[in-house]
Amino acid sequence: EIRMDAVYEHLYITERQRALSEWFRCLRPGGKLIVNWIPDFERASELYRVGAYGPTDEFPLWNIEMLERVTNGVSDLFSGNPLQLHKGLFTPRTVRLEIEDAGFVIDRIGLVVYPGERGAAYNICVEAHKP
Question: 55 — phi, psi (to 5°)?
Fold first, then answer.
């Protein structure tokens, strides 16, 4: 099993393609790939558009700051250090295509609520396997 939480979105497309290829190579047939907590751009944008309740006390409403945090990641603005910037925008469809293009079979893909947060689900979680 290969599992990652809140990592996939921090890789550029070429890095994701190479990583998926390597993970496919390393897994035995039937081996699982689990990728969790990829922010869904379309869902986050919709939550912002309708002014939904936010997921945390720090972000009680889906405002522009919350949308930026979800779509772009978190950076240290004072030092200019890009700590956790996201390297793309993601939807369940785009994530599915990337993982299937690497040869995996998707077992489950959906939106879930991150532990400790509340409200609407906006994180993509995927379970796939090597045929």
Answer: -85, -15
